[in-house]
Amino acid sequence: MKVAIDGPAGSGKGTIASILSKKLNLVNIDTGATYRCVALASLRNNLTLDSKEEIVKLSREIDIKIDLDNRVYLNGEDVTDEIRSKEVTNIVSPISSIVEVRKNMVDLQRKMASNNDVVLEGRDITTVVFPDADYKFYLDASLEARAERRFKQNQEKGIDMSYEEIFENIKARDYNDMHKEVGALKRTNEQIYIDSTNMTIEEVVSEFIKIIEGDKNES
Ligand code: DC
Fold it and tell me: Which residues of the chain have pLDDT under 70?
């Protein structure tokens, strides 16, 4: 079974995918983490956004792994926390706009998902990575709600970013993520649309489960 979830930054995809994976016994693949690893590796190699060719080469050479506890490894090193840093967050969207980087990451994501029942979350899962997924969701929320959620999450993780800084970062990423040449975040008629602005996490999870389980019971 493949469950695909797309949506903008802070819409709750990560939280929902993680809970669903446990409840439905699925492997959880956070595809944003793969782009964040390319961004971190680029920073560590002092590459700026002008060095596209080097970034593409790096995206081919680095080893990215995500384990069953959702820990993320870059060339064997646990970078789960470091890929959420402000520095990575600020450059990840333009890095993920590089077409060849996307090609390498999409190949990797498909490989990670092969032979497994999976839930994948990202921006182009329902449209590019697995357009034939069994369930395709678009999880949304207002910009204000998403900035507020990310602000609270960052505070818990000790990441020092003001609400205004997060609001502007998410707004800029929304625009960039929706206007990419390849793999842009899009709404389609095939997705099940859920707006979580005024919903609790439990309510969103139960909506997902109702759709997935309800469908199973019908067939
Ligand atoms: O989900 P996230 O915020 O960790 O994702 C980080 C960035 O990676 C996001 O700004 C857009 C990009 N991304 C993408 O282009 N395609 C995906 N499938 C997932 C993430």
Answer: 215-219
